[in-house]
Amino acid sequence: MDDTTGSADEPMDDLMDDGSADPPGELDDKESRQPQDQTEEELAEQADHIRRLRRQGLRAPFMSGGVAGFGAGDAAGTINKNYYGTAPEAVPVDGRVPGADLDRLRELYVEPRSHGELRKLLTLHGVAVLRGAPGSGRYTTALLTAQEVMDADVVYLDPEADLKRLLNKDARPGGLQPGRGHVVEGDGRPWASTLRGQLLNRLRAETYRRSPLVIIVDDQVPFDGLDDHVVEHPNTEDLRFEVLARHLTVLLDDRPEGCRKLLEHEALGEELRGRTSMAEIARLARQLAQGEREGHDTDRIVQGLKARLRSRAERLLRPPAPAGDGGAGRVPVSLWSRAFLLACVVLDGTPLSRVSRESHRLAELLHGVRSPSSVPEMPLFQESLKDWLDDSDVEFTDREGNPVGARHPECRVRVSQRGLGEAVLEVLWHDHSGARGPLLEWLDGLVVRGEEDIRVAAAQAVGLLATFDWTYIQEEPLVRWATDKGEHAARRRFAAAWALERAAHDDMLAPRVRRLLRNWSRRRDYQACAEAAYGTRIGVLFPAEALGNLEKIAQTQMKSVRAAIHEIYAAGSRTQTLERLADWSLSPHYRLRDDAAMCLQQLSRFRGELAITGFLKEPVPRGHLLRLTRNVLLSRDLAIWRRGWDTLRLWVERAADEPGLDTALAEFMAELPPDAGDPSDRLRERFLFYLRLWEHQGVGVDAAAHITSLVTERWSK
Predict the structure, then answer these.
(1) What is the DSSP letter of 403?
(2) Cα dihedral angle (605, 608, 613, 619), rounded to 10 degrees?
(3) What are the φ and ψ backbone dihedral angles of 132, each rounded to 5 degrees?
(4) What count of other Cβ atoms lies within 10 Å of the Cβ of residue 130?
(5) C-alpha span between 114 and 141 (Å, rounded)
(6) DSSP 351
(7) Which residues pair with 356 in a beta bridge?
(8) 531: closest CA among 39, 34, 21, 3?
(9) How many Cβ atoms from other residues are within 10 Å of residue 61's Cβ?
(10) 624: β partners
């Protein structure tokens, strides 16, 4: 099975809703109270709790700050952020890449063989296709080569738009800009697989000597007939070592001796063979440099590298020692202790009682697997927890991370060294194939039975396994979870979404996850899972793509996608979310209009920096909010209309507690009717009526009175 999980040309009749879809949102758990039995405050609190659990479990290196890096997983927004390792911001459509970012990248850049070939092709034709594996540094090479050819600024073109628009004169100035280099990324986009020589030849006339263009595609895209335009981007071991050396030289410019010792260490070659992404190499360089600055000796620094962690994991998963082979008095390694180790890895940071309980279940599943090696019996009192700990490399802490004993009432199990748990699962998956099925069955059991923190941990473990074996994990648990129709459907659906969220943080898998979700968005049986997945950080990493596919889901399924929209907004893509909702508020599809109104009402409940009322003072998002609010308030649908006024009531109530909000709200409402006519007059009359009503009801009394006087004065002029 490939990434599409079905044909893109599926009949649209199969995508229509039969009205039987469950209510959306990651809270519609059939085994607990249904969403309609919970208050909005309870739902919001539960969503916030799950979001915190997911973020805590991810612990992705790029979620904490770092220096600019080479080849940031080919995510354009990451480069523009200027700090590799930080969540990418939305890249402006056809926006200029900041010069400071390019200068920083140039400092860390090592020219691959493709650089010279790409420069030559751009000089000859003006357009070139750079083809290579995701994460191999294609984006950085494209940026710096495009800049070098023109010796000018570089523009990042909107990857969602088809390249044919660049041939349309009416599309400018949003398209090619004379005198500047251009880069567009095709990963996960439908147009990347449909590139033809005819289109590229037509683009020559537009780009030659004026606006050079580099088109980035991954190495899975066919290039038949494009030989004259394609440059292959290599990812050799020599190049990876040079990149690491450049990073360390920059990071340790004041410690040349420490830098030399690190680069000459014999373990580094083995470490690089296990890292194919330039983003990973950038993180490796930061890890090494941090150890050097903390004063650790070279041997100690490399002990924490992946290759060394894998060696430790192999020792932990070693086969039982033969009888009489030393270790007198020591209990032989058994399935009990192996199951306990794996439970510690998956449920890292959870109470010891839970880990022990779930390890029993895993041991029973493993015990049913017969392999060429003998399966030891499992007598109940032969081993103790102390025996398991000798082979598990874990430690006990309380909630705050302080060391405690195993009998402490809040004892939690934690893997002793960060990264060791991932190494254990990687070794298990590749070296002990007989354990794959029982492990996945056990993780499925955690998803359907466990509490929220257990479910999140199990789902993210599956996402980690996907980075080891994408095809296997996609075909087995992910597809089955996404399409489950049983009593545990909701839990499995969100587990698949959370697993994809974890997988999407891998530089190599992100394009595959995006392609998978794009296809799932068009298939009825998969749409609910796609919606849930876009309601994770996947929607934040790729907001335009997520919002566009959520719109398709809402149109074909006629079901609300407000839960995913809420998550995307809460995670940081606020302006883009607001702009899309403003567009939806004028859609001919009722579900989109209704979702726009519901989202306006729900998002208004945020406080602090996420408060939607903060947009009242920001020019660009203020315009989107103005459109959205006006369209909702003037809707002919009663339910939508009511949500709009309930939202304004909430704003007025909040204005009584937040200084300056009443004035900003009055100025905003005074601008709401942008044109004259009966609808505008009726809107003014309604607003004044509701202000008097809310003042009478005691809702933001002083604020309501102040807003009334301000808008009356403005409208009288």
Answers:
(1) B
(2) -140
(3) -170, 175
(4) 27
(5) 8
(6) B
(7) none
(8) 21
(9) 17
(10) none
Would you say 71 and 282 are in contact if contact means Cβ atoms under 8 Å apart? yes
Enumerate residues 6+ apart whose C-beta is below 8 A from 41. none
Query: What residue type is 89 in one-letter code?
Result: E
Q: What span, in angstroms and rounded, lies between the C-alpha atoms of 110 and 141?
A: 9
- Helix, strand, or coil (residue 583): helix
Does residue 66 carry a pLDDT above 60? Answer: no
Query: Rg of the Cα trace of the chain?
Result: 28
Q: Are 455 and 54 in contact (CB under 8 A)?
A: no
Under DSSP, is residue 395 helix (H, G, I), strand (E, B) or coil?
strand
Nearest alpha-carbon partner for 265 in 239, 297, 234: 297
Four-point Cα dihedral 655, 659, 661, 663, nearest 10: 110
Tally of CA atoms within 13 A in the half-sphere of 60 that contains its CB: 22
Among 568, 444, 456, 424, smallest CA distance to 59 is for 456
> What is the model's pLDDT at position 329?
46
248 neighbors 283 (Cβ within 8 angstroms):
no
Nearest-angstrom CA–CA distance, 176 and 146 = 13
Tens digit of pLDDT for each residue in 392-419? 788 888 888 788 887 888 888 888 887 8
Half-sphere exposure of 630 (CA within 13 A, CB side): 19
List the beta bridge partners of residue 217: 131
**Residue-wise DSSP of 310-334:** HHHHHHHTPPPPPTTSS-TTPPPP-
Q: For residue range 661-686, what is the model confidence (pLDDT) as tens digits?
A: 888 888 888 887 644 555 557 788 88
User: Residue 289 — left, alpha, or beta (φ > 0 → left; ψ -120 to 50 → alpha)?
Assistant: alpha
Q: How far apart are CA 378 and CA 359, in angstroms?
A: 13
Q: Are 12 and 556 in contact (CB under 8 A)?
A: yes
Q: Beta strand pairing status for 154-156 and 95-96? A: antiparallel
Instruction: Please give the pLDDT value at position 376.
Output: 52
pTM over 0.85: no
User: How far is 353 from 256, CA to CA, in rounded Å?
Assistant: 49
The more confidently predicted of residues 263 and 76 is 263
> Both tokens of residue 546?
């997520």
Token readout for 259 is 């830098």
Q: What are phi and psi of 175, to 5 degrees?
A: -105, -130
CA distance 8 to 6: 7
What is each CA distance from 150 to 167, 200, 207, in whole angstroms? 20, 20, 11
The residue type found at 345 is: V
In the chain, the N- to C-terminal Cα span, in Å, equals 67
Spell out the SS3 assignment of 472-523: HHHHHHHHHHHHCCCCCHHHHHHHHHHHHHHHHCCCCCHHHHHHHHHHHCCC
The answer to whether residues 578 and 610 touch, using CB atoms and an 8 Å cutoff, is: no
Q: What is the DSSP string of 669-703?
A: HHHS--S-SHHHHHHHHHHHHHHHHHHHTTSSHHH
For residues 224 and 638, which has the higher predicted lDDT (pLDDT)?
Answer: 638
- Neighbour order of strands in the sheet with 95-96: 95-96, 154-156, 181-185, 213-218, 127-132, 230-232
